[in-house]
Every structure is written in C-alpha cells, then in structure tokens.
Design brief:
The chain is α/β, with parallel strands linked by helices and 553 residues long. The protein is 26% helix and 24% strand.
Length: 553
C-alpha cells in the first residue's frame, strides 16, 4: 500500500514590515534578512539611520521634563521657605469727620516745602511691640497724610532735593527701619492702595535669617521690582549692643571700640575703623549684589551716637566713617531740630519723626506739620502760643506778655523759640519787637535770631544798655537812653547780623562760619534779678522777609 504523504503547511514567517506583525510568504526573505531596509526598518521612525538620533532626542526630552519638574518643585520649595504669603488688604474704619479734620490740618501749609521724614518700624497684625503698627493703624496713618495733601517721595527724589534740586510739592519720605517681614506681608498692599512709596533701611546680615521676623532677599527683590520700595543701609551686623570694657558694660558697635576678650583689651582706633568700614561696605555690597542701586542713605541703629552734635571723639569718628559711604544719615534723636532742609543737607544729617503703635493719625499729622518749613513771614506771632517751643522754664507763655501767674515757684528766667522745627532754613529776614516794663533796671529781655545754628545771635536790652552776643559771647555793646520801653529791629543776612535799637543805636557782627550753617529762626527771652521783680513785657513782634518793611503787631 502506498504510504500517504503528510500534507504540510507552507512555512510561515511572521514579522513586521513597518505596518505591524503579519504573515510573510516571501521566499527570498532569508536571503535578504540581513538587510534592515528590506526588512522594513526604513519604513518608520526609529528604524535604520534614524533610530539613534530619535532615541537621543526622546531621551533628551525625557530628561528635560524631569529637570523641569524638579526645578518647579525646587522653586515651590524655595518660595514656601523664602516668600511669606501676603495677607489680604486691610482697610481702616475712618469716619467722614476724620477725613475733614485731616484735610483741615493741611490747610495753610506751603504747597512746596522741604520734605519731612517719617520713621516706622514694623506693620504686623499680631505683634505687641510698641514699635509695630497694626495694618489698620498703618492704613489710617497713610489716609491721614493723603487727606492733608502730602505726597511720598522715592529715595532718589529725596536725594535729588537734598543735593540742591528744586523744592518738591508738600511731601514726606516714609522710612522703615530694620527690614521686618510684616512690610512684605501687610504693608506692601496698603502702600499700593494709596499709591505711595517707602524706603527700607535693611540690617542686611539678618535677611533670610530669623524667619519669619525679617524679610528675605526674594521678598526684597519682589518689592523692589514693584517700584514701590527702595532699600538703604542700617548696617550689616551692628544693630546690637556689645561689650565695650572689662567690667561688662555694653554699647552700640557703631560708636564704641569693642572689648576684645581674647586679647584682654579694647580695640585700637585702627581696629575700630577697619571693623566699622568692613561692616558698612558689606551692607552696601549685599544690597547691590541683589540688583538694587547703591545706597546713598544710612539710618543710625537706635539713633545712638552720630545723631548728636558735639559728640565725643569716637562718635565723631563714626560720623566721619559714615560720611565716607553715605551722603545722608538719618536719626530720630538729635540735639537740634535738623529736619530735611538745606542746613541739614550741608551737614548730611536728617532728623526724622518717629511713629509708634500708640501714635494717632492726628498726633502724627501735628508732628509733621510742625516740621514743614514755612517762610519767615509772621505779623502777630505773639498770639500764636501753640507755635512757641523750646525751653520755657516751669512757666506758661504768658510770662512774656505780662501775665505772670501768682506763684511762689515763678523762675527768674524764661525762653521760647518760635517754630523751632520749621524755621531751620530762615535767612534774609527782619524781626522787630517792642519790649516794655524795663523801668527799674532790675530786669532784662532779649531777642535772638539764627536759633539753633552754628552761631545764634542775641540782642540783650536793659533800661540803659544794648549788648550783642554771638553764640553767647559779647561782640558789641552800646549805651541806651534810659527808659522803660525799647524797640529792637534785627536784620539777618547770609553772614551779617545788624541790630538797631530805638532806630539809631547800631550793633553789627559778621560771622566767619559757613553761611549754610547760620540759618535759623527767632527766640525771645526774659529775666529778673530777684524774685518779685517786674517781668519785661513783649508788646509787639513782627517777622518779615528783608525785602519789605516790617509792620507793627
């Protein structure tokens, strides 16, 4: 029997021609199987000569996605660590009566005047510090300034004026010491609401540290980019107190030579100078390295030391060191009222108005208004009792007007300055006064000009003599016709002071001090030799520019 041969299926190859797996009956496949193109690898991406570039491209894309994801994650981490979330905008509860009153307080002030500098420290909703305003209180303060007609200046605009630029419209410079995080978290949005500017004096070595109390450089850069904030120096790491002697006494590092415990001595003058300059230069470098302009202003930590005139040698050296780097130095405490003015510009020292948590908007406006520079033009200043400051020894202003209280404690000397903070720049003016009740020769009165300047001038009159004093020293003297009333006219020029008594007795003095250090206002003084004597009486006082004749009040 013939054997039946088994019928076999033809050999089927399954492979991919580029259109997915499929049966292949090509008889020549094996011969050509070594050729990639014949096997279909040239029919799609990733085959033949394209496979490695594509794979590299896909790998690069994958790596970029991973890196981008990682960078985004890192950015989110850094933002959470170095960017505090800003609080919602807070608005103060302000009545219509408040707004009317604040507007009224701005009336009568010059439209153009040297700016007044304000000091704030922190704006914080939760702080109990006497230096920290709540957001609502800060909003109320800015609203009051706005209603009273004040504008805010940038650091550059303020510097331009102090360098001799034109007098701006009535304005303030808002400054903030230290660089606390509340300025970003709370104050920034309130400042934006009022379209105002602020200047922060940074303790640069504390930024990014002691979170969340201080700002971070990321927050500072964001604030600078908004155009609302400028940044100046408050030292790098000298906002503290340090040991200054072997007994453990402490003091501000800016104005004291420090105790070197490892050497058992104080710093030498050279070591002190090198340390202070290194710190100040470092604070400037920190600010510049974060993309901001070179600081031109410095705020004295705790307003301690160089803000005072006639300081000791270390204070004076600190003042010179500061001047090497900063044209303008800010302080909150000074022996003389050096608000922003041409005189303070010549010394490079500016006194600010400090605002505390308990300061009301009315108190703040009153303090600012007292420091707005006014012209030397007042016809009845004796009636403006609220505008007389200075030292009035344990008595009221009435003692100058013959209204002496009946009290056993009445002193024998009294003094008062007219607008001491707002007459800093006065020069080229004339002041006339009539003084009575000088009849018995046991009392005297005086009219002073150039108050609080480098060389204040005083005309002293008694019943029968007139004396001209320069900074307390007699420079001229003339006899007078003996009588109980005398009239004094003093003309104040750039460097020359000329006094006329009763129209014909003349006393004059030419100062050798710089003219820009001789400006200042008017002082009146009274004195008696024995308790119970009659006090002199100022019957009239008139202040006017030199180019017109003074009137009689």
């Amino acid at each position: 029997m013939a054997l039946k041969r088994e019928q076999r299926e033809p050999h089927v190859v399954v492979h991919d021609h580029g259109r997915g797996p499929e049966p292949c009956f090509r008889s020549d496949y094996a011969d050509k199987s070594g050729h990639d193109h014949s096997r279909g690898r040239g029919l799609g991406w990733g085959r033949g000569w394209t496979q490695w570039p594509v794979r590299v491209l896909l790998g690069a894309l994958t790596l970029s996605v991973v890196l981008a994801s990682g960078a985004a994650g890192l950015e989110r981490y850094l933002s959470r660590k170095y960017m505090s979330p800003q609080a919602p905008l807070t608005r103060a509860s302000i009545t219509s009566a408040d707004k009317v009153d604040w507007t009224r307080q701005g009336l009568g002030l010059p439209d153009h005047a040297p700016p007044v500098v304000l000091t704030f420290h922190d704006v914080n909703k939760k702080s109990t510090s006497p230096y920290a305003l709540t957001p609502r209180a800060f909003d109320a303060q800015l609203t009051a300034l706005e209603k009273a007609g004040y504008r805010t200046l940038s650091a550059q605009q303020f510097t331009n004026y102090m360098n001799g630029g034109p007098t701006p419209r009535r304005s303030v410079l808002l400054t903030f010491d230290d660089g606390t995080d509340g300025l970003w978290k709370y104050a920034d949005r309130i400042l934006a609401k009022h379209r105002m500017r602020g200047t922060i004096f940074l303790i640069t070595g504390s930024m990014d540290k002691h979170r969340p109390y201080y700002l971070t450089w990321r927050e500072i850069e964001r604030m600078h980019g908004s155009g609302r904030w400028d940044f100046q120096s408050h030292t790098r790491a000298m906002h503290s107190v340090r040991q200054v002697d072997a007994t453990g006494n402490t003091g501000a590092p800016l104005i004291n030579r420090l105790w070197l415990a490892d050497k058992g001595r104080r710093e030498t003058q050279a070591e002190y100078r090198a340390r202070v300059l290194h710190d100040l230069a470092g604070s400037v470098e920190d600010i510049v390295n974060h993309g901001m302009p070179t600081p031109t202003m410095f705020a004295v930590p705790f307003s301690d030391g160089p803000g005072q005139q006639d300081a000791d040698s270390t204070d004076s050296q600190a003042r010179h060191l500061l001047k090497e780097l900063f044209p303008l130095v800010m302080t909150d405490h000074s022996g003389v009222p050096l608000t922003a003015s041409r005189r303070s510009a010549s010394t490079g020292l500016v006194q600010r108005v400090e605002v505390f948590a308990k300061t009301t908007p009315d108190e703040m406006l009153a303090a600012v208004g007292e420091r707005v520079q006014v012209p030397a033009d007042a016809h009845t200043p004796l009636s403006e009792t609220e505008n007389w400051g200075g030292r009035q020894t344990r008595t009221s202003f009435g003692v100058f007007l013959g209204k002496v209280p009946k009290s056993a404690q009445i002193p024998r000397y009294a003094k008062a300055d007219y607008r001491p903070d707002s007459s800093v720049d006065w020069t080229d003016y004339s002041v006339t006064t009539t003084i009575g009740a000088l009849g018995n020769g046991t009392n005297q009165a005086a009219l002073g000009v150039r108050t609080n300047s480098k060389e204040p001038m005083t005309v002293v009159v008694t019943r029968n003599r007139a004396i001209l004093l320069a900074n307390g020293y007699k420079v001229a003297s003339q006899p007078l016709d003996p009588k109980s009333d005398h009239t004094i006219t003093v003309k104040v020029g750039q460097d020359t002071t000329t006094a006329y008594v009763d129209g014909h007795v003349r006393l004059t003095h030419v100062s050798d001090q710089p003219a820009d250090q001789l400006t200042g206002g008017v002082t009146i003084r009274s004195g008696i030799n024995r308790t119970g004597n009659e006090w002199p009486v100022f019957k009239a006082l008139d202040i006017s520019p030199l180019d017109r004749t003074p009137g009689r009040g």
